[in-house]
Amino acid sequence: MEIKRDYYLNQLISSKGNGMIKVITGIRRCGKSYLLNNLFYNYLLQNNVDFDHIIKFSFDSAEDLKMIGEDPFKFSDPNAKVDPNKFMHYIKLRFNDSKTYYLLLDEIQLLGAFEFVLNSYLRHSNIEVYVTGSNAKFLSKDIITEFAGRGWQIHIFPLSFKEYYDAIGGDKLQLLQQYMLYGGLPALINFSDKDKISYLKNLYKETYIKDVINRNKIVDEAPMEALLNTVSSSVGCLTNPSKLERAFKSIGNITLSTPTISKYLELLCDAFILNVAKRYDIKGKMYMSTPFKYYFTDLGLRNASIDFRQVEYTHLLENLIYIELLRRGYSVDVGNIEKQETINGKYTRSQLEVDFVCNLGDKRLYIQVAYSIPDEAKIAQEKKSLLTIKDNFKKIIITMDYLQHLHYNNDGILIMNIYDFLFDENSIEY
After folding, report:
1. DSSP label of 111
2. Sheet containing 331-343: order of strands
3. What is the pLDDT of residue 346?
């Protein structure tokens, strides 16, 4: 089954000829290699690029390693690297004319001195370089610095719900509940529910956690795993390292200091497992130091981290919308707005929360997430913070409730169903 990833494929296409190394980043198992070696490769062939001008090489493939004279068995040593001289000699023999060549290189971190090798290809005007990597080094958010400002990052996420639905089809409500439970890692498409759970729990512990542990030479993985479990249990809730430290002290079996918690959270964000949403004072137009909110890049991994307990769809819905906004290119913060009012002759000041403040260039959106708005009291509650904002940027409420169509209410707030939001990227532009 071919899963379409047109959003990312178009980014690869538009980056052709920009004079940079195209670096595909993202959480492990999200489909980086498939995007490059299947979808983009087929696109090049279909657009009249000669077969022999597309050079695919996977540094974790025994067959490919043998082609350049490397012994695949030496890579049982995790510190072993592919000889860059052998690789460059192999590539040089493939260049026969001045037409453009496309290098599609998978698991590039296994190549010795890969930064120097790739930067050397930038000196050739007829070479386009595309790379992926799956170890912690390539999962780092600052990988582009490895190429001295000459890297072009294309960051991909697990399948969006629309991509997931397009691949499977069926009842939207049932599939959305399934998606919020198991997430969007592409390999899950053909798994049974039982196999999905086993796959996610094993992947979470044996791949994602160990990747961060090994990269950062952390001796004991139990504290980090406990921290991640705690964040999982409170996904979408305001927190900070000192609050988390107090939570661990109350439990008593694990001691984690505030500096260590801060460092671990940073490492988990660097590996794209977690994403941090900072708190933004809308009226004061400034960021607040703490607390923050943390969201998971993939809902399935969040649920696997706590053994599929606490599957609370209200919080999962918020996480889902947050990641979808990131995927669409928005920077997303948690909004804070002060409301001043006089009630029964008494002046009061209160702090209200706006779920998401979304920015893209000069565009801004304010979004509230409401699992259900069954009556006027709930609607009044959800719109209270939005109506306190005095600027003219668009204000939106997204709900799971069935709506005949998205619409603006009398306060000028756009109210839409989650399916309108997920299936139509232009829905928030209406």
Report:
1. B
2. 286-296, 274-281, 331-343, 346-360, 363-370, 394-399, 414-417, 407-408
3. 80
DSSP H helical segments within 209-273, as ranges? 210-215, 222-233, 241-251, 258-270
What's the pLDDT at 141? Answer: 59
- Which helix (H) or strand (E) segment is 279 a member of? strand 274-281
In angstroms, how far is CA 127 from the centroid of its own chain? 29
State the pTM of this model.
Answer: 0.92
- In the predicted structure, residue 214 carries a pLDDT above the cut 90: no
The enclosing H or E element of 203 equals: helix 193-203
The tokens for 243 are 């609050």
- Region 390-414 average pLDDT: 93
- The whole-angstrom separation of Cα 43 and Cα 1 is 17
Q: How far apart are the first and last CA of the chain?
A: 34
Neighbours of 123 (CB within 10 A): 7
- The answer to whether the CB of 196 falls within 8 A of the CB of 300 is yes
CB of 212 within 8 A of CB of 218?
yes
pLDDT of residue 217: 86
Residue 357 in tokens: 């403040």
Place of tokens 């037409």: 99
Q: Which of 173-177, 179-183, 252-256, 316-320 has the lowest mean pLDDT?
A: 252-256
Which of 148, 142, 121, 166 is closest to 19 using CA atoms? 121
Distance between CA 87 and CA 111 in Å, rounded? 8
Is there a contact between 91 and 101 (Cβ–Cβ < 8 Å)?
Answer: no
307 DSSP assignment: T
Q: Is the pLDDT of residue 143 over 80?
A: no
Task: Give the Cα separation of 306 and 235 in Å (integer).
Answer: 12
Three-class secondary structure of residue 358 per DSSP: strand
**Alpha-carbon distance 45 to 353, whole Å?**
50
Tell how strand 363-370 and strand 346-360 pair up. antiparallel
User: Rg of the Cα trace of the chain?
Assistant: 24
| 178, 181, 186, 192: CA torsion to nearest 10 | -60
**Percentage of the chain lying above the pLDDT 70 cut:** 97
Please choose, from the candidates 335, 365, 370, 368, the residue with its C-alpha nearest in 3D space to the C-alpha of residue 353. Answer: 335
Compute the residue count for the chain: 430
Residue entry with tokens 């809730």? 237
Q: 6 by DSSP, 3-state: which?
A: helix
Residue 402 carries which side chain, given as an amino acid letter?
Y
**What confidence tens digit (pLDDT) does each residue in 254-312 have?**
788 999 999 999 999 988 999 999 999 999 999 998 899 999 999 999 999 999 988 88
